[in-house]
Target: DUF5686 and carboxypeptidase regulatory-like domain-containing protein
Amino acid sequence: MRYSFFLVFFFCGFCLFGQKVIPGRVINKETREPLAYAKIQIEEGSQILTNIDGSFEINLSQKSENISISYVGFETINIEISTATQYLQVGMTPKYEQLETVMISDGPNPAEALIKKAIARRDANDPEKLLEGYKYTSYTKFIIDNEFNGISLQADSTSAAMQTIINEGRAYLSEKVSEHSFSSNNGHREDVIGIKTAGFEKPVYNVLAMEVNPLSLYKKDYELYKTKYAGPLANNALQNYDYKILDTIASERPSYMVYFKPKRERIVAGLEGILYLDTESLAIQQAKAQLLGAIKLEVTHIYQYYPEKDLWFPLEQITRIRPGSGGKEISVFGGTISVGSVQKGKGLLNTIFGSKKTGNDVYLNSTSKNYNVDLDFNPEVKKSDADINVVSTASYRDSVFWKQNRKIDFSARDEGTKQKVDSLIKMGGVERKIEVKKAMASGSYPLGFWDLDLSKIFKFNNYEGIRLGFGGRTNDRVSDKFNINGYTTYGFKDEVFKYGIGTQLYLNKKNGTKLNFNFSRDIREVASFDYLKGQNTFSILEPRFVNINFFYNYRRYSAGLEHRITPKFDTQLRISREDIWQIRDYTYLENSEEFRDYDLTTASFSFLWRPFSRFLNTPDGNIILEKDFPQFTGQLEQSFSAFGGDFNFTRLGLKAEHEIRRLDKSRTEFILEGNYAFGDLPLTHVFHANPNNPNRESIFRRFSVAGRNSFETMYFNEFYSTSQAMLHVRHQLRPLLISKNFQPELVFISRYAIGDFEDPEKHQNVSFNTLEHGYSEAGLELNKIFAGFGLSAAYRYGAYHLSSFKENFSFKFTLLLQL
Model:
């Protein structure tokens, strides 16, 4: 037995150490520039390509070998390498006759002509355009083995789980089996039927949302891990990329090897790589793309040919991320990865496998393999509002299921990573850190059984002064069937306590069905209209709140029901009874009777409709994959004079938001909102147009925080309406790339409002204007000048232009921060 063990160890050691890895680089001998995707033919018959920085690695299995290095437009070089070779830098000499023919001729670039033909034939090669329907199954293995210091991810709140894993968890391993189906009528559907996540009791669905691997390279944008790049075969591809034919590959189905490189990298995000285009159909047979900088990102797409359809269909995708050599930040996972000096430390896997060369280790490796492909799938795909649906049994699959569906070997290294992940996740408290970041993104902080509401801790306004408080709700540690919520705050200027208490019953968490009961005694801004749905529950700073000075008191009892009809259509119904009494000297005159204090019985229905956003549907609920536009928010509110109410009125609100995002990071935003009310309307329940200009004479005394959809030159309490329409247009230019850490954003702003007011004589002891002539302002913002701070300037013009410059002009600062 001992002898057998010795033989196994001896031969394994021979295999491990019998090969030598020889690194090297291929460059242009005259310009010293790297030659990307140069072909290196090894004597034994294998072939490799250099990376985009000209680098390569050769596994030498013999004492010496002859290699041949070739590149279009350059003299071919033959070199002998041996075990004595430590590093090989090859300088290739340009062959000017060929360069003149291939690259510098007066005629059209043959590569561009080829790409134009490939773009013209795109619909004939894209499975989604060519086929009525198809289905297939995929197995995906996703590993992060982050054994180095110096790399960190700055991501938005939607990527909080990935940010935590990369920066603090330092390791991750998951497996996924999905059934995919497509029909030309209802589009693509993915059902996750199996999922395993090492180290976590439950799958990290937020990370699963990052694994939206692009099936097709024929789209306008190539999206990889929440980051969009210009598509190499998009209609405008020739504006974004330079192309060069490197070779023609001889095989059963020959292909052109076409190199592509971004031509507007500082403007439009692009990848650098090669396309293997079928010489007959110009379909993609294989593709490879890379990014080099703080990290090295490599993506390989492999297609399989189906002769009966004359179609190349995706077979496999491999994504690798490794430490780079520093330099530019790389955008991935919805954020940026930057690096100072990468220190490659010795980790557990190095100890297990005896690796002395950590530079070869892969720190992220995602491989997806497609199988059971059916290109004659005719039945209609069940339409789903969720792009990815995780079935309830997905996380409970047994070993037989995984043995049948693992189409990629689960190696000893993978098992070692799994053990490491289990240990690191538990020791590092990564589940807790993900829980905290997820809660913070929604405005709370988990403290044991209590989720602390961050918005209740501190506020300031002109009426209450400093407002300190405490609030929140119980979490699943108390019960997964209900929560108890409440808050209490105190204003140090008005010296009044405000408070609220309630409960929420979870009828169906997956569909977001909740039954709410609440009581609160607080203050609210006069003429405000708050949508029950579509509002941000928490923001770091509420720009307008600081300067509001016209409030009223209310005491409200309410009951309501929330229900998500589909992931894209969320609704809420609320019935409430309010007791209202005034803070300022205001009286409402109705039928010769004066009302200063009154009661309201109200029913409200609100909805949020996001028809173009993409969602992940899990057993625990829905996670938004990508917020896309337009989206719509609406609310109908009816107050009844019956059931103890004093007034009968109706209020309507509808808001449409649209955003055009471009690959050069510029964007244009539109917000169109309309409000309409009729009936017995006290001033407390009419509308204002979100004014945000303090009522002070000096420009600098009005210096405050600018809002996103507020009128910066409109004074508080200046205008009120019973019907109004508002349009906000913001156009942000691409960031100004002044330096790595200083990239301010210039924004042009236009705002318009028009409105009317019925029966203004009913409102006693207050004076205000109406908007029937139309209100206009224009402005500029220079954002992210320092630590999220910027500056804003706006000017009022048109019908409501005032007599002096300083009355029409506003100057404020902006603050753009993300949790």
